Amino acid sequence: MAPSDGTPFGGILVSFSDDEVARYARHLVLTEVGGPGQQRLKAARVLVIGAGGLGSPLVQYLAAAGIGTIGIVDDDAVALSNLQRQVLHGTADVGRPKVESAADAVRDINPHVAVETHRLRLTADNADALIAAYDVIADGSDNFETRFLVADRAEALKRPLVTAAVGRFDGSLTVLMPYEDRDGARNPRYRDLFPEPPPLGLVPSCAEAGILGAVTGILGTLQAAEVLKLVLGIGTPLIGQLLLVDVLCMRFETIAYRRRR
Length: 261
Fold this sequence. Notes:
Layout: H1 18-23, H2 25-28, H3 34-43, E1 45-49, H4 55-65, E2 69-73, H5 98-109, E3 114-118, H6 127-132, E4 136-139, H7 144-156, E5 161-166, E6 170-176, E7 181-182, E8 185-186, H8 190-193, H9 206-209, H10 213-232, E9 241-246, E10 251-256
Parallel strand pairs: 1-2, 1-4, 2-3, 4-5
Antiparallel strand pairs: 5-6, 6-9, 7-8, 9-10
């Protein structure tokens, strides 16, 4: 998490061009952000896993906020059926690698943001090198195998993780920092919420069950807010709290969970 003493990530002091001062004006007038906070954002490196439904609004808002470097992991190409919810991509991008389309979108939003593309599937062989290179990890993947892998390796490498998942009309979100203590107790792990992945085929995929596109927009935007809070060191992150969102009745509910052992 970002330090609270006014220094940016890594203690790096960064300066802003006139264009950046104008661009971030609404951040700079916020007492909780200001110049020091915007420096932290510019110095931060955030890894986004998945450039799909969750990753789209997540990447857009991180870029707009001025995160200095955004890494994007995705091995897929843009399909026409993606466009109903994956708003990073447009019709002209169909057939392109998602990481390339996403990188172009980031540059259009904010040319001051560096993009590092990783066109690959996260595996046990490459996860550590990727995760270790970033300050905060945001998981918007669409399968349990990747979610468990990311959670386990982020814990081992002591990287804060913002992880979200979506269903047909609902979603969930939590923040994981299980390598730290809070109120005298060790923070919970992802496996304290979900001990093991469900059996293959038990949970239908998005293609099988369908999804209301705006659901991914809501959860991905909430993910971005949690990432920005972590980088800025403000507010109370969703550590030990699982946020549940039901869009059909527009209900938000937070459930507390603890470390099992």
